[in-house]
Write the structure tokens for this entry.
Amino acid sequence: MADYDEAIRRDPQLSLAYFHRAVLQFRRQHLDEALADLKHILDDGHDDAAALRLSARIEVQRQDLAGAVRDFEAARRITQLPGDDIDLGYALFATGECARSSAAFSAAKAAGASNKYIDREYMVVNPRGNRVVFDCNVRNDELVFFAR
């Protein structure tokens, strides 16, 4: 952390240092600090898909699902990675937007989402506040989502 702080002290415009410090803060569950670093990057006019993705993941943890959807959609417009569609699909599902969620999952499949993007665990909180943990992986070339 001290190295990133020093890099930012020397060059306050060094976005990469802000991003790596945000990642470290996120891993330590210092979500407010991580979002502040990401906000610095994004407010400076950088179209940084990685910063948007991390911001969205933090927003999911903070239960700001509308913010998560906004940032996942923005990241998706920049990079079009299959993993973006999967993350967006889960955020949309959690907000109760099932049709848009299904479209996002279909887009991931159409884009050739591979195990690199799919094999992960998701916790979804639906509008009633119920938490469900899902696994998402590929079986027989189909995306499969199942509750654990």
User: Anything to note?
Assistant: Helices lie at 2-10, 15-27, 31-43, 49-61, 65-79, 82-94, 98-110, 115-118. Residues 65-79 form the longest helix (15 residues). The mean pLDDT is 77. The first strand starts at residue 120 and ends at 125.
